[in-house]
Design the sequence.
């Protein structure tokens, strides 16, 4: 059995070397792809950004969604609403682990119905990313509702 430091080194060496700047660029690109997929209601593109065992905690009601398919089902239900909120997540910072192919993204989010930019809700988020098979995917996201325009929760 490997000791913890040796196990960490083995895991870190299993992934091809990537500089923190390269990792950050790829994570930001994945976030941009996720935003485009939300706007286009493209479930396949959303699925490509998510780890199979993804965990999400929503912003206003703190619903916990566990697993890729349940999360995709939630998006699919939301996409049926013609007045749905289109969410945009904006990365403020990406911190890449020097030990493992994981990273922490922090940023802010905003959701507004199409054509109603003054009717919005937003806040802050964190996301944990993991690089597997050469691709950065979201493992965990937590959203916190902090601000709103006309779309304020009651």
Sequence:
């Amino acid at each position: 059995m490997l000791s913890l430091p040796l196990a960490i080194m083995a895991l870190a060496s299993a992934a091809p070397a990537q500089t923190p700047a390269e990792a950050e660029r790829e994570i930001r690109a994945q976030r941009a792809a996720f935003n485009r997929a939300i706007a286009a209601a493209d479930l396949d593109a959303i699925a490509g950004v998510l780890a199979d065992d993804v965990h999400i905690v929503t912003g206003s009601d703190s619903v916990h969604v566990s697993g890729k398919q349940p999360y995709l089902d939630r998006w699919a239900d939301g996409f049926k609403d013609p007045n749905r909120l289109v969410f945009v997540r904006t990365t403020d910072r990406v911190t890449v682990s020097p030990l493992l192919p994981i990273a922490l993204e922090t940023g802010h989010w905003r959701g507004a119905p199409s054509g109603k930019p003054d009717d919005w809700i937003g806040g802050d988020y964190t996301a944990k990313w993991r690089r597997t098979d050469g691709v950065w995917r979201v493992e965990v996201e937590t959203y916190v509702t902090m601000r709103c325009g006309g779309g304020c929760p009651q």
In short: The chain is about 35% helix and 40% strand. The first helix runs from residue 4 to 14. The beta strands are 50-57, 64-66, 85-96, 102-113, 121-132, 135-148. The radius of gyration is 17 Å.
